[in-house]
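DM between two lab members

TW: hey, do you still have the ABC transporter ATP-binding protein entry open?
JB: yeah, one sec
JB: this one, 295 aa:
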Amino acid sequence: MELELKKLTKEFQEFKAVDDITLTMSNGVYGLLGVNGAGKTTLMRMLCTLIKPTSGSILCDGKDIFALDGEYRRILGYLPQEFGFYPEFSVHDYLMYIASIKGMRISIARKRVTELLRQVGLAKMQNRKMKKLSGGMKRRAGIAQAMLNNPKILILDEPTAGLDPNERIRFRNLISELSQDRLVLLSTHIVSDIEYIANQVLLMKDGKISHSGTQEEIIQSVPVKVWSCVVANNEVEMWQKQFKVSNMKTLSDGIELRILSEKCPHYNAKEETMTLEDIFLYYFGEKTGDDYDVL
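TW: and the structure you got?
JB:
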């Protein structure tokens, strides 16, 4: 299974939400990482045929997805950031309803719903009304509906948004389990979601894919190193103006800063291992005064 994007662009009046993206994806987990407003959701909505591009094309195994129409949607699963449901439906009835919309035969749908309820950990909750579910349980029901047709392409938009740490870990494990033998595109601004499960990382900024590759390749693309050093409390602002600071930690003898710099920034600085969060700051953040100076 291969998705190929060729010079894909989406404009809303004079604003380019997606700007001339060329990209090829095959089976595996792709992590689409960027700040809010980078164009991630617009890109995913085009991949799901919900909106058409202004120019460019999206090919699935060499065929235009909009020309394929229903044939393409039969192999597609989509979990939007906010998905609709009838609050009075039980979890089981909700999934059966979605299965009917997807044109599944009742006998096949019942078997598939039972399998998925067990897989996503909702078997004991299948008779509970959707409105009574926690945020994490609703997201699990959401991924179950996306998996009903056993899709070859699974697109997940901010799947862990609003979840507590335990639910996020459980959800990441579930996505990893479901990712075998299919193409999974996971969009998020939560760095750890990508760090733990993505085979390939796509960095998106201002409607463009600025960098792509494995985590190791992305890390190697950065021309700076990561340093930690302890400075006095009253010096922190000065350091933030001079360097990108990805973390601050209060200690008994001062403030420990995690700094991105080509050269050693301080006599007591120690070089650290670079993480994807440092990469996020380097490519998307700025020095103090912008929105992403400290993550």
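TW: got it. The first helix runs from residue 40 to 47. The chain has two domains: 3-220, 223-273.
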